[in-house]
Every structure is written in C-alpha cells, then in structure tokens.
Amino acid sequence: MFKAVYYHRTVRAAEIMYDAILRSYATELGFSPAMGIGEYLSLDDGSVWSKFSEAAKVTSGSKEEQSAVELFNLLMRRDLLKSCYEVLRFENEPLGRLMENEKITLALVESLANESGVDPMYIFLDSPTLPTVPLKSSPDGSELGVIDKRTNNITTLSKASPLVDSLRRYMEVIRVYTLPRHRETVFQAAKKVFKRELLSEKVSY
Question: What is the pLDDT of residues 120-135, one digit of tens each?
C-alpha cells in the first residue's frame, strides 16, 4: 500500500512541484538553517501556501521565480506535471543508484533540454528506490527471520532462500516529468537520450 500510494507517479509529480516551489522561495517562506523547531512546526500546508501566495504577487521576475509561480498556479488548478518516460534499473546496493550522482542528473536534464528545445526549468527527473523484495522486519533494519526446518535454527530469509537472495536487488525507477504542453516533445527526446546513456530502458507514456 505504501509503495502504491507514495511512489505513484501522480503523487510524486505533486511532490516534485511542491519541492521546486519551496526551493525557489525558501527565503521568502522563512526557511533557513537557523530555523527553530517551533518555527518549523508552525509551517503547516495552510501557512506555507498563504505565504507563497503573497510572495508570488511581488516576484522579482527572475526565471526561477517565474517557473515557481507557474508551478504554483498549476498546483492550485490540480494540473500536475506529467510523467512522459520511465527507465528501470537494478542495483545490489542502494548506493549504486545512478541518480545519487548530482552531476549525472544535471547532465541528463541538460541533454533532454537540448534534444527537446524545452527549457530545463521545466524538465524534472525523479528516482524513487525500493528493494524488489521487502526483507526488513523492524525499524533497526534487521532482516526477516525464518526457521530452518532441517536444523530448527532461526536464519535470515535471504540466507534460507537462494531465490530470494537473487531477487533482493534495489529497483531504481527514473522518471522524466514535464509540463503537460511539453509532454510529447520531451518524450521523443527522452527516447533518444536514454537510449544513448543507459543500457536498459522501459518506456512509460
């Protein structure tokens, strides 16, 4: 249920938009390293939305702020970013994630922008990662335990089953999002860019 809800492309699209808005207007919204716990807890959805509505009225006109205002207006109309391309990759460890490397992320966005002619401000990459088989049973990260009938000893699921161990890789989903009006253009660009950059790909449109 968690995966179906919080990793759904529509939910992730809303999160990407919200994050981009907050990053663009962090100072105006009162976010800072010196923020106290009380100040942070007071920033509920209503107060943040209200502050941003006021800040957007006096925008400086910079490219980043104009993009943030447009995303804000789209969110208000429930007109979310669209996922136009998806790539699946598998790694044995979460640290092997391609999108953990910021330089790679920026390079891919730049390539997509150059190929499509769309402003990079309107191209977003998202990469949620989950293990293909849930092996953790507690918050401390310990693996699921099973009883070995041959010895009556408790062992870990991955040790008891070679099949499970072979499936315990992490699935990295790389999704490309853009504004609805750019969906087809970025989709066509992504097919070319990811075919050049990655060995495995899966189109999701």
Answer: 999 999 887 665 555 5
